[in-house]
Design the sequence.
């Protein structure tokens, strides 16, 4: 499913990017080195980390998008870097668990 369609269904707010990539799963984590080693390409990454390092990890792992959960802030440097690198970022006030359960219910 295209990320933009998923985001529309789940009420995520787009911070940047077009969301045209295909989401083939979901990965939850806030420890960047762990996500860098484990997150499968094409995943929707759910995290509270809204800094430039999360953008670097998303780009390196070729993730479908990043969703900053729990109403956590996305800093301006991260937003600018995401725009430069073509990383799609959404935000949600919902918990990481709620977002993951919702994604699982739609794309498995």
Sequence:
């Amino acid at each position: 499913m295209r990320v933009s369609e998923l985001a529309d269904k789940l009420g995520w707010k787009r911070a940047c990017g077009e969301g045209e990539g295909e989401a083939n799963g979901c990965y939850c984590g806030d420890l960047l080195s762990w996500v860098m080693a484990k997150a499968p390409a094409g995943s929707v990454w759910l995290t509270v980390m809204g800094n430039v390092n999360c953008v670097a990890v998303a780009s390196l792992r070729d993730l479908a998008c990043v969703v900053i959960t729990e109403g956590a802030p996305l800093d301006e440097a991260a937003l600018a870097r995401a725009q430069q690198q073509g990383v799609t970022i959404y935000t949600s006030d919902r918990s990481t668990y709620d977002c993951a359960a919702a994604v699982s219910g739609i794309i498995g």
User: Anything to note?
Assistant: The chain has five helices and five strands. The first helix runs from residue 3 to 10. The chain has a mean pLDDT of 97. Residues 23 and 88 are 12 Å apart (CA to CA).
